[in-house]
Design brief:
single chain, mainly alpha, 12 helices, 240 residues, 5 strands, two-stranded parallel ribbon
Length: 240
């Protein structure tokens, strides 16, 4: 019995300790790039050795130099040079391969979170003003330039829906009051952890709870985390 529960409890303690170590007192110094490495249990500077990442940035720089079009160059990088395709709805969109940006870069398939995370990494490294915007069960990107805003749909190769179109499209979803506000980096990471927890909700409750606990550390104001934690806890066997 002890062996059965040792590893899930150890993993949960490890992830919580890691999150506290990384974020307490030094969150403002963490980048999306470092977070991508840490979620893969790699050194924060791991991107230095990822050739697809380095080649992608070189492509972006040459495209901007030739066209002076940062938005067009970003779209070309994501959907032409890296050729990232939509992985599909449902579990395909929340699989680790679709959420964690280094796996997205390797497999060239993504849900909204993984593509957005990767785009935010590029924006961060090149000083672009790009935000992730929350919708019910979805995120999209918002690019700022001069006095204009452009929405980019990550699952449709950067197609630009208006805010009104998004409101209509997601009107039947669960709205929380957090929608249409730029996500902070900690919130975005919490949402990624939440998505991965959802992947395990039906098959591995201890692992789902581990990811939900991590999500709660980063994004406590998101009500879906507490709701799904409760569902997961109610599915645990009664120890008594």
């Amino acid at each position: 019995m002890l062996a059965r529960f040792f590893w899930p409890l150890f993993l949960a303690a490890f992830v919580i300790a890691l999150s506290l170590l990384l974020w307490s007192g030094r969150f403002d110094k963490m980048s999306y790039r470092e977070m991508a490495c840490v979620f893969e249990e790699r050194a924060p500077s791991c991107l230095d050795s990822v050739s697809d990442w380095s080649k992608g940035l070189a492509f972006f720089d040459s495209s901007v130099a030739a066209s002076r079009d940062t938005l067009g160059s970003l779209k070309k990088l994501l959907w032409e040079f890296w050729n990232i395709e939509f992985a599909g709805a449902g579990e395909a969109a929340i699989a680790k391969e679709s959420v964690l940006p280094l796996r997205v870069l390797e497999n060239q398939k993504s849900g909204c979170m993984g593509l957005s995370w990767l785009a935010l990494m590029v924006a961060e490294s090149r000083g672009l003003h790009l935000d992730a915007i929350l919708l019910p069960g979805h995120v999209f990107l918002r690019y700022h330039f001069a006095d204009s805003l452009v929405n980019l749909e990550p699952n449709l190769r950067g197609y630009s829906y208006t805010d009104a179109e998004y409101r209509e499209k997601y009107k039947d979803g669960r709205w929380t009051g957090l929608e249409f506000k730029p996500l902070e980096a900690r919130q975005f990471v919490g949402l990624a952890a939440f998505d991965i927890g959802n992947l395990y909700l039906e098959t591995d409750i201890p692992r789902a709870l581990t990811w939900y606990r991590m999500a709660e550390e980063f994004f406590p104001e998101y009500p879906g985390i507490d709701a799904n934690q409760t569902i997961a806890k109610n599915r645990l066997p009664n120890p008594f």
